User: What shape does this take?
Amino acid sequence: MEKSAILLGSEAIAHGVKLCRPQVISAYPITPQTHIIETLSEMVDRGELESQYIKVESEMSAIAAVLGSVSAGSRSFTASSSQGLAMMHELLHWYAGARLPLVLVNANRALGAPWNIWSDQSDSFSQRDTGWLQIYCETSQEALDTIIMAYKASEQLMLPIMVMIDGFILSHTMERLMIPAQEMVDDFLPPYKAPYQLDPGNPLTFGGAAQPDLFYELKKAYSATMQEALGLIDQVQTEFARKFERHYSAVMHCQEGDKNSDTAIICCGAMTGTARVAVENLSQTEIAVDLFKLRLLRPFPTTDLAAALKGKKRVIVLNRACSYGVGGTLSQEIRTALYHLPDRPIINDVMISLGGKEVFPETISDIIKNREQLSETECNWL
Assistant: This one.
């Protein structure tokens, strides 16, 4: 049976990882991710988790260590944040190109300069083209559950998955949640059996050079697998819901306005909770909007999003990452996904928070109340 516990978000992540029985863990401490690997190292030290914990001198070494361990056939785990994730950038490409499974948790934090340790989503959004699947979580319960689902999907697809929690907002706050029983997770997630691995008795080439035509064909195949991942992730989430009775989807309708509502808000991550309060408060004043959260950024759920937003005349996108010179990064993704629709809605690109700038329900309420004043062509900075 599941058990109830009150945990920090970082501790919830560690418990989720433990339930998946990784054989190798390697990570380098960086705020606000440090609690995750501290908790895991204590679990290993106490004998609660049978895993080899590899201490390294940098994030580059951490991702390199798990690249080696997974190549040898082990289920592995790593975590990072901000400049640490940026330091991994080169090997993120190599990891994806190697077609190896891994779950990496990123505690979202702003990238410098200037120096900042608070939360936004610029670190992970800047890695969206490395070939990793990306999933964004609203709550610690969602993060714990997502880790379990991510391992199952990653090992079936042979693709790495990055799971995001908002730094401090989730990592350093406490939440009552349910921890699944180990036997339930074992039944859902069997031991990893590598289809190919480093083996002196059966030598294979790993990471060899590819001529242009072969390189193109390999990337074409990778792109096709990423598209297939949409269906597989949905299948894994459905299976998880049947077993654990918690439901997740790529695009989630969090708050529904009345049938005449023509405006929707989209965000991802922990800000969804703040938006829920804003939308609920507005409903008491007869201002009705729909709230959606995007869990899956890569591969992008274009079809699901278009179906969810059907009939909407305006979509307000709340961004916590910026592509400077263009606007909100999430807004670009939404525009691309909806551009083919003959009745596509107005997209209002709103930059609501960077570097931990506080967002209150009233902030979002004011945006909705004044939506007619938002620019349709430029990024709206608050």
The mean pLDDT is 96.
